[in-house]
TrEMBL record:
PROSITE patterns: PROKAR_LIPOPROTEIN. InterPro entries: FxLYD_dom. This is FxLYD domain-containing protein. It comes from Streptomyces machairae. Residues 64-87 are annotated as: Disordered. Keywords: Signal. Residues 1-21 form the signal peptide.
Length: 153
């Protein structure tokens, strides 16, 4: 299969999540921080996590934009309290391809809650493949999902 991608692992995702959690914990412990500055720092940490997810897709060489080839199911909550959503990738090419897909998890107001990347591997020519993306932590309320980016390679 043409192209090369760097493999990312659950460890990398968990490391990013731990870093965000640590940043949130540290900022909330400071006596000098106002609620608005803590919120600003939290938003910055989540922006960093989103950038990390985007970097995983940037590492894919020889990929093309495939956002239009991705469909999402309805978000559900798994037994661990994390939000999951089924991702369907349609391969319209004449050879087997894989897809890297970044999903953003947002609240009712459109605020970013989380982001994660799923790989839908080895989708046959003219067929669809499925994968499931899972939030990196528990999310509360009415969670909505969107395809932030998708790369076919």
């Amino acid at each position: 299969m043409p192209g090369h991608r760097t493999r990312w692992t659950t460890t990398a995702i968990l490391t990013t999540t731990a870093a965000v959690a640590a940043a949130l914990t540290l900022t909330s412990c400071s006596d000098d921080d106002t609620p608005s500055s803590v919120a600003s720092q939290a938003a910055s940490a989540f922006a960093s996590a989103t950038a990390k997810a985007g970097q995983q897709l940037d590492d894919i060489q020889g990929g093309v934009n495939a956002k239009g080839a991705i469909r999402l199911g309805d978000p559900t909550t798994d037994s661990d309290g994390r939000t999951t959503v089924e991702v369907t990738a349609e391969n319209t090419t004449d050879s087997t391809k894989s897809f890297g897909v970044q999903i953003n998890f947002r609240d009712e107001g459109g605020n970013l809650l989380d982001a994660n990347v799923v790989t839908v591997s080895d989708v046959a020519a003219g067929k669809t493949g499925k994968g499931t993306v899972r939030s990196t932590r528990e999310l509360g309320g009415d969670v909505r999902t969107e395809v932030a980016r998708a790369v076919r390679y």
